[in-house]
């Protein structure tokens, strides 16, 4: 269990973090989302001991997170920390050895990860000769090579093509199934919505929402009623209850009282109803509402 409790951080007059708190349970994938400058990277750097908080604490399995505990973490920083002149396989093995693996174990883990991340054919290439997307894959392999007990990944999917994203998702899902807590930040909200057990939204250094996507949706209410009616005259929806937005044959009705049957009856009287149903808010909708 990773627990972040009441983190405060200032840079001069700027308050970067203002009481940030959340937890990542064993085997949970936690998506940490927010606009640029919201405090995601600062939180992760404090978690990994790169920065020191003004107050608050980071706990691991019920006690304060120590230097020894952080050595059992896998960390991927926002900025790549790779040696550009080293060959790919040598690079990953080197970091495996730094994290305590034997030479044989480091070679074995490296070979497995390079295959999983489609880098086997580039094992003998210098890192600096790779595309940015492939360098991102190497950085991920470095974070994973020593079989960490927890993962903290800052924008791990940035620059990856869909095939590489799928490969990484499978690796992370495998680690979660083994009980590893995974914390990652991302601006790709559709990906976070698809992958994560829980989500935390940070804005201007404060946590404005945490919970599962379903819990966050429930706080937003039922969403918007979407109705598509064909073969009808424009303006049929003008008298509907609620807030109405018309887009050709499509009508969106927000703030609907009751179960919406009045809307359905009006639509059926107006023409041929092709679609009638509630559109639940996406994580993007929830994020916009939370940070507004």
UniProtKB/TrEMBL annotation:
<dbReference type="InterPro" id="IPR003593">
    <property type="entry name" value="AAA+_ATPase"/>
</dbReference>
<keyword id="KW-0046">Antibiotic resistance</keyword>
<comment type="similarity">
    <text>Belongs to the ABC transporter superfamily.</text>
</comment>
<dbReference type="Pfam" id="PF13732">
    <property type="entry name" value="DrrA1-3_C"/>
</dbReference>
<keyword id="KW-0067">ATP-binding</keyword>
<dbReference type="InterPro" id="IPR025302">
    <property type="entry name" value="DrrA1/2-like_C"/>
</dbReference>
<keyword id="KW-0813">Transport</keyword>
<dbReference type="GO" id="GO:0005524">
    <property type="term" value="F:ATP binding"/>
</dbReference>
<dbReference type="InterPro" id="IPR027417">
    <property type="entry name" value="P-loop_NTPase"/>
</dbReference>
<keyword id="KW-0547">Nucleotide-binding</keyword>
<dbReference type="InterPro" id="IPR003439">
    <property type="entry name" value="ABC_transporter-like_ATP-bd"/>
</dbReference>
<protein>
    <submittedName>
        <fullName>ABC transporter ATP-binding protein</fullName>
    </submittedName>
</protein>
<dbReference type="Pfam" id="PF00005">
    <property type="entry name" value="ABC_tran"/>
</dbReference>
<dbReference type="InterPro" id="IPR050763">
    <property type="entry name" value="ABC_transporter_ATP-binding"/>
</dbReference>
<feature type="domain" description="ABC transporter">
    <location>
        <begin position="2"/>
        <end position="229"/>
    </location>
</feature>
<dbReference type="InterPro" id="IPR017871">
    <property type="entry name" value="ABC_transporter-like_CS"/>
</dbReference>
